[in-house]
Amino acid sequence: MKILFQALSGALVSIKLLLALIIFLVLSCGLFLPVYIFYLRRKYKLEREKNPSTKLKVGIFHPYCNAGGGGEKVLWVAIKALQERYPKSEFYVYTGDVEVTPQEILDKVSQRLNVDIGKNIKFVYLHKRKWVEGDRYFAFTLACQAMGSMYLGYEALTQLLPDVFIDTTGYTFTLPIFKYLAGCKTGSYIHYPTITNEMLKRVSNRNSLYNNRSIIARSPILTMVKLFYYNIFACCYSAAGQCCDITLVNSTFTLEHLLMLWNRPLHLVYPPCETDHLKKIPRPIERPEKIRIMSLAQFRPEKDHPLQLQAMYELREIVPEEVFSNITLVLCGSCRDNNDAKRVKDLKDFSMHLSLENNVEFKVNLSYEELLEEFRKAYIGIHTMMDEHFGISVVEQMAAGLIMVAHRSGGPLLDIIETSEGSRLGFLAQTADEFAVIIKYILSLNDEEINEIREKARASVERFSKKKFEEEFLRAIDPLFK
Fold it and tell me: Which residues does the UniProt record annotate as the domain Glycosyl transferase family (predicted)?
């Protein structure tokens, strides 16, 4: 009994010490943080007054500027447009790609994205990028990444104090750092909202997905905890969004979700797509004997490449063997890191598991010229990401004359693909069965019907051209430069 009493007393003392420590930390933060913020604001104000510059410094936050995806396409086309409009301004890119030189980055931009950047560009290398990588966190990934982005943003600020700060990756929590600490004008081009009502619904409905683990989906208690966490995060995300002077979004999907969360003016500016020269790729009037189905997307989990392999598996079940033997799925995309490379290996293993190795090809990190060759050889395009915020690759495949089948959600549904008869630009599907049935249907169409869809699709993509993007982007962002 005495031992039990001593144990309880010891536990009580430990709890008291823990509570005392928590109270001390809360009070310390409550007192220290405002003082430190005031100090930093004073510091950067004096620094700006001490070092006045005749040239406007523009800092563009894009930690993965060397990734070579659609987001990077927006970044570099935007920078080129800004360089031409404001030649007297200085442009800096905050990047975490410390392993590559500025020239290597620009060479890759030219070769893979077909964008030639002027000399008026400098790079600010960041070494804390690991703190925004989702794989680093076991739980509360969104909150941890948000705090990590603030840490990374603070590192960026300590290296370069800009006059104008533009985030082009969706790291919204960096905006308060530059707005309130540094007194910068702030702008943002958002490709997709960090959190949406759809995400809340999926958690509430206990749907297991790449961002909602099955262990959470199976548990009503964990689901309730995650819903509470998501709602708190959504409030913080909305508050951070109020720090943006000019906000641009890339699609109707993103616009509608952000309007609900932020309740502030937004500018819809579709991303730049390679439409002009892709529309010039010649297409044979007759269907080729060998059918190549092209997928163009970075090898990231949300792109759902396994669904494409499952669709091929289902297609094999509903078309004659002699037809299927002439069909090849070609997965084209870039790998950002070792995790993406491992994902490609897993996809290859999955294709072998489904006995599809003779009908699937992988084309990783293609140059722009190699990519053009794949466009020329392909007949059908496929895109399987659920809630794709826009879908640059969808537009580019349509411009190249491919008959497009995309996921019935997000940008392809709301902005890109019209499916009503008489105005059809492509097809939409959700499940592997649906994708397979639609591909079979496309193969059953005669050449006249195919060419009619192709020509209408090619004519429709002009609204997504680089020229249109440059005009709309500069019109929206101009107030930051006045």
Answer: 287-458
- DSSP-based three-state secondary structure for 216: helix
Residues in the chain: 482
For the segment 362-400, what is each residue's pLDDT rounded down to a tens digit?
Answer: 999 888 889 999 999 999 999 999 988 898 899 999 999
Between β-strands 57-61 and 90-95, what pairing exists: parallel, antiparallel or unpaired? parallel
Residues 141 and 184 occupy one common structural domain: yes
The CATH number of the domain holding residue 405 is: 3.40.50.2000
Which range (95-99, 224-228, 276-280, 463-467) has the least confidence? 224-228
Contact criterion met (CB below 8 Å) for 248 and 267: yes
Give the bridge partners for 403, in sequence order: 380
* Chain centroid to CA 417: 20
**In a 3-state reduction of DSSP, which class is residue 182?**
coil
CB 94 within 8 A of CB 60: yes
Under the banding of pLDDT at 50, 70 and 90, the label for residue 441 is very high
- The single residue listed with the structure tokens 């510091």 is 43
Q: Are residues 250 and 379 in the same domain?
A: no
- Beta partners for 116? none
How far apart CA 416 and CA 475 sit, in angstroms, is: 23
Total of domains in the chain: 2
- Statement: residue 10 has pLDDT above 60: no
Q: Report the 10 Å Cβ neighbour count for 30.
A: 9
Backbone φ and ψ for 367, nearest 5 degrees, come out as -75, 170
State which residues form the domain around 187: 52-271+468-481
**Closest alpha carbon to 423 in 451, 381, 457:** 457
pLDDT in tens, 229-262: 888 899 999 999 999 999 999 999 899 989 988 9
- Tracing tokens 């703190």 back to the chain, one arrives at 131
Torsions phi, psi for 211 (to 5 deg): -110, 15
Rounded to whole angstroms, the Cα distance separating 112 from 89 reads 27
Mean pLDDT of 27-36: 66
Question: Mean pLDDT across the chain, nearest whole number?
Answer: 87
Residue 191 domain flag? yes
Residue 233 sits in the same domain as residue 297? no
Share of the chain above pLDDT 70, in %: 90
Tokens of 114: 């077909």
202 has pLDDT over 80? no
Cα separation, 179 vs 153, in Å, equals 11
